[in-house]
Amino acid sequence: MKNIWFKVIKNDIAFKIYLCFTFVLVLTGLLTGIIFIRLYRQNYLHSYTELLTKQGRTIANRVAIFEKNGRIERFLKYSTYIEEIEEDENTDVWIISYESSQNPLAVEYTNANDGKLTDEMYDVIYNAFQGEVSSNSSYDDIYGMVILRTAVPVYNKSTGVVSGAVMMISMVDKQTMGVDKGTYLIFMSLLLSFIISFVVAFLFSQYLSKPLSKISKNINRISKGDYSSITPKNPNTQLGRIETTLARLAKQLGHVEKERANLEQVRRDFFANVSHELRTPITVIRGYAETLNDGVVTDQGAIEDMYQRMLSECQGMERLVGDLFILSKMQNPDFQVEKEPVSLMQVFGDVTRSEKVIGKGKNIQFKEEFPEDDPCMMLGDYMRLRQMFLVIIDNAVKFSHENGTVTTRMYKKDEKLYISIADEGVGISQEELPYIFEKFYKSKLKQNEKGTGLGLMIARQIALKHSGELTVQSEKGKGTTFFFVFDECTSMEEYE
User: Fold this and answer.
1) Greatest CA span in the chain, whole angstroms?
2) Mind listing the pLDDT tens digit for each residue in 412-446?
3) pLDDT digit string (tens) for 18-74?
4) Nearest to 393 by CA among 480, 310, 461
């Protein structure tokens, strides 16, 4: 349970933002504190070095005056004051004679022991002998303190040359209490700022992560199939634009889901219809085959009739399979018909010649109203166009009355070609009209018993592949008219 909670916290965006802000604030505070403490120490050491230098200048001036006036007694009293300074401020005051000078300090004024002089001391003393105020510092590992050294030259009042030097040596011990106190105050200030930073970072991370949490909830809701509307609170902000995009995505996914559901229903209906259309002829064929196999029927005429009916059912299944194959090709978005210049006049001539044979039994008359001296050329697939018109004219003949008329009209308008095929047959009811282009839809009329219910849908698909449109108008008992409209049409002259 603990590990799960840790993983959740670790992957939480608010927690990550909180850690980032906290890390930045803590790092900034630490760097600021370290730099401040370092500058504080340097400034303190610089100030204290200047204090030692000022004291050294005072002592050097007094020593030069005492030596000029030969007042050794006054100097001895003054040296008592120097000893008090050394004791009170933990500072060693060394007065060194410059032996190489024309007028070195008398031994009575000096208290330096050459045996105790270190290299660091010699450095500042040497510079002082050259007439420069010099100082340096070093850390003493034994005492654990910083040692400050300052040397000031002592000038002979008569000759003006350097006669010695005053060296101030101080171990920064009690004096560093100010630094330690400052460090403590800085540390407490940093600690307080860290606590405040944690609180501010937490509140700020919650504020920033709130819209992200909302987006996360919406994404989770979408992933579970809930595509309900998402309303961005501030669409002009960056997060608002993300919510707007997410809302658009949810809407699109909702449409896709509806289309998927519709396609699934279509698939189910398709297989159900195919199964139904195939089950009947298979049942008939099986029944006749079993009867013939059992030898129950001996009459030769009856046997031939059974064979004829089985053949008829096989032909019906063959038509169904053929229509399904054609329809699957037509509905494939990647399928493209092979187009070439085609004369629609020639196509209709071919179709009507075939249908006149079929319509002869009902004495159907064919009437054509075509443009004169214009073959109505278009880019298309001859056999597909022939199949399309054949479906419509075949239906017109099938549902026409005896001695009826099928009229085909063709004309051009606004660079488009219009074709209508009208019959005077039984017509289609207004209730059935919206469904006639659907798969496997067949009217219950006797004339439609052998149909597959796919012809009109195939015809519409062929029209679509030729940048055309197929519509219908019908009135029950008065007849039906199918309308074609094609965009790609031109005259023969343009092909010559």
Assistant:
1) 170
2) 888 888 889 999 888 888 888 888 887 766 666 55
3) 666 667 766 776 677 666 666 666 677 788 888 888 888 888 888 888 888 777 777
4) 480
0.70 exceeded by pTM: no
3-state secondary structure of 192: helix
What strands lie across the sheet with 468-475, from one edge to the other?
365-369, 405-413, 416-422, 479-486, 468-475
Contacts 24+ apart (CB under 8 A), 318-327: 319/452, 320/274, 320/277, 320/278, 320/452, 320/454, 323/452, 323/454, 323/455, 323/458, 324/274, 324/454, 326/387, 326/458, 327/439, 327/454, 327/457, 327/458, 327/461
In angstroms and rounded to an integer, the radius of gyration of the C-alpha atoms of the chain is: 56
Q: How far is CA 403 from CA 334, 366, 409, 423, 424, in A?
A: 44, 10, 20, 11, 10
For residue 1, what pLDDT is reported?
A: 44
Q: Does domain 238-329 have CATH number 1.10.287.130?
A: yes
Whether 420 contacts 479, CB under 8 Å: no
DSSP state of 105: P
Task: Give dist(CA 57, CA 313) in Å, integer.
Answer: 131
pLDDT of residue 369: 86
Q: Percent of the chain, pLDDT > 90?
A: 2
Instruction: Choose the most confident range, by mean pLDDT, from 154-158, 261-265, 281-285.
Output: 154-158
Domain positions in the chain are 2-181, 238-329, 336-495
CB 57 within 8 Å of CB 152: yes
The beta strands (E) that lie in 35-161 are given as 91-97, 134-140, 145-155
Output 107-110 pairs: Cβ under 8 A, ≥24 positions apart. Answer: 108/72, 108/75, 109/63, 109/66, 109/67, 109/72, 109/75, 109/164, 110/164
What count of Cα atoms within 13 Å lies in the side-chain half-sphere of residue 76? 6
Asked whether the beta carbons of 404 and 424 are under 8 A apart, the reply is yes
Q: Which fold has domain 336-495?
A: Heat Shock Protein 90 (3.30.565)
CA-CA distance, 387 to 193, in Å (whole number)? 86
Task: Please provide the DSSP assignment of 437-477 as one string.
Answer: TSTT---SSGGGTT--S-HHHHHHHHHHHTTEEEEEEEETT
Measured in whole angstroms, the distance separating CA 439 from the mean position of its chain's CA atoms is 41
* pLDDT digit string, tens, across residues 81-112: 777 777 776 788 888 888 888 888 888 778 87
**At the topology level of CATH, where does 2-181 sit?**
Beta-Lactamase (3.30.450)
The SS3 call for residue 354 is helix
Placement of tokens 């519509």 in the chain = 471
Of the listed ranges 74-78, 239-243, 273-277, 350-354, the one predicted with least confidence: 273-277
Q: Which pLDDT tens digit goes with each residue over 358-370?
A: 677 788 888 888 8
